[in-house]
Design goal:
Blueprint (H helix, E strand, L loop, with lengths): L11 E2 L9 E2 L7 E4 L2 E4 H5 L1 E4 H6 L20 H19 L3 E5 H4 L6 H22 L2 E6 L18 H20 L4 E4 L5 E2 L7 H21 L5 E4 L9 E2 L4 H10 L6 E6 H6 L4 H10 L3 E5 L18 H13 L8 E3 L10 H28 L1 H9 L6 H7 L5 H11 L11 H13 L1
Parallel strand pairs: 1-2, 5-6, 5-14, 6-7, 8-10, 10-12, 12-13, 13-14
Antiparallel strand pairs: 3-4, 9-11
The chain binds D-xylulose and cobalt (II) ion.
The site of D-xylulose has 11 residues, from loops.
């Protein structure tokens, strides 16, 4: 197969002094960075993945206009296009030094007239991926089924009011799991694109959620039966496409997984732009997952603070990538998960070279985040401040509460003896801490 990007060289780390836009300034794959859990190379900490849908399929169409970029990959037929996407994807991964990829079934091979034909063509495309994996050692981070694009999913997939549709969703998930296992995937994602509702006037919310859980239980049973050892993930998102998405945010999803006995097999795949749509910071969503031992994987991107939809921009905001990587390091780093760029170049960035510029920008921003997060932990000022702020829980009545030895009467007695407490409180020092963060980042 001839090259698709013959003018693009392998992207190298050239360091901060370089002015070459086709080089990494901060991402140095083999450089070792210390974390609380030990030392790993940047490549091992970050585990970057290419998203098949944005990079290989997304043509830049929006509500008001057609695509601006060519993702036909010089193919004459749909089958040839699926195969050429594989060759182009592996060329991109090779040139950028990306080790992993993520896919939906229908990104790899489109819908054909029947499910049987779609499955057969998917198998053919997957065989090409497997062949390229064998040649290159590239790995599958996670797979998923597209249970939202086809018109049959208009009222939902796992939460459809119609069991025929539910059966199609189940069939797609079964096949996507088989394909994920075939490609050695370490994860399987549920993003509930159409799993939500517009109005309760026509919706049996309780049944829909029970049915969604049943589908996930079936997926776990089937996945484990065919040797899937990785993590299942739910990817929270609060809106878009439906008004009320069931998987609003991390806390909601964790409640759902616990209620239905799914927590053992599932973790969260947290996406930056979904967090902000949920009116949370990215760091908040990651912290909720970490505190509940549910941190799994990341869809790296960023939204635009002036826009209220999922813009899926490549991440370039270093404050956000820093606080993200701080949470990742504190969570013990990635195990089965990694950093999937669920990101696309802007519609105006339509030249093939923009694929490389956008990944370089995202990888460098995440690498900077990793470097600074490790410095924050090493520096200790921020962690020490927080630890000291909670020192009263270590001794006396605080320790009694934590040990389960205090009751309301004991706390009342303590408060009565104190008389008043405001005079002994100290400031939360937010501005000082923000200055310390800037000092660590830029000092
Ligand atoms: C949609 C989204 C999806 C999931 C996988 O907003 O993020 O691409 O990541 O289905
Ligand atoms: Co995503």
């Amino acid at each position: 197969m001839s090259e698709f990007f013959s003018s693009i060289p392998k992207i190298q780390y050239e360091g901060k002094a370089s002015k070459n836009p086709l080089s990494f300034k901060f991402y140095n794959a083999d450089e070792v960075i210390k974390a609380p859990y030990g030392e790993r190379t940047m490549k091992e900490h970050l585990k970057f993945a290419l998203s098949w849908w944005h990079t290989m399929c997304g043509e830049g169409a929006d509500m008001f206009g057609r695509g601006t970029t060519d993702k036909v990959w010089a193919a004459a037929t749909p089958e040839e296009r699926s195969a050429n996407k594989v060759y182009a994807a592996f060329e991109i991964m090779d040139k950028l030094g990306i080790d992993y990829f993520c896919f939906h079934d229908r990104d790899v091979s489109p819908d054909y007239a029947t499910l049987a034909e779609s499955n057969e063509k998917l198998d053919k495309a997957v065989a090409v991926i497997a062949e390229m994996q064998a040649k290159t050692g590239k790995k599958c981070l996670w797979g998923t089924a597209n249970n939202f694009s086809h018109p049959r999913y208009v009222h939902g997939a796992g939460t459809s009011p119609n069991v025929d549709v539910y059966a199609f969703a189940a069939a797609q998930i079964k096949k996507a799991l088989e394909v994920t296992v075939k490609l050695g995937g370490n994860g399987y994602v549920f993003w509930g694109g159409r799993e939500g509702y517009e109005t309760l006037l026509n919706t049996n919310m309780g049944l829909e959620l029970d049915n969604m859980a049943r589908l996930m239980q079936m997926a776990v049973a089937y996945g484990r039966s065919i040797g899937f050892k990785g993590d299942f993930y739910v990817e929270p998102k609060p809106k878009e496409p439906t008004k009320h998405q069931y998987d609003v945010d991390s806390a909601t999803v964790i409640g759902f997984l616990n209620k239905y006995g799914l927590a053992k097999d599932f973790k969260l795949n947290i996406e930056a732009n979904h967090a902000t749509l949920a009116m949370h910071t990215f760091q908040h969503e990651l912290r909720v997952a970490r505190d509940n031992n549910m941190f799994g994987s990341i869809d790296a991107n960023q939204g635009d603070t002036l826009l209220g939809w999922d813009t899926d921009q490549f991440p370039t905001n270093v404050y956000d990538t820093t606080l993200c990587m701080y949470e990742v390091l504190k969570a013990g780093g990635f195990t089965n998960g990694g950093l999937n760029f669920d990101s696309k170049a802007r519609r105006g960035s339509f030249e093939p070279i923009d694929i490389f510029h956008s990944y370089i920008a995202g990888m460098d921003a995440m690498a900077l985040g990793l470097r600074i997060a490790a410095k924050i932990i090493d520096d200790g000022r921020i962690d020490d401040f927080t630890a000291t702020r909670y020192a009263s829980w270590q001794t006396g009545i605080g320790a009694d509460v934590i040990a389960g030895k205090a009751d309301l009467a004991a706390l009342e007695k303590y408060a009565l003896e104190k008389g008043e407490v405001f005079g002994s409180l100290t400031s939360s020092r937010q501005e000082m801490l923000e200055d310390i963060l800037n000092d660590i980042m830029f000092g």
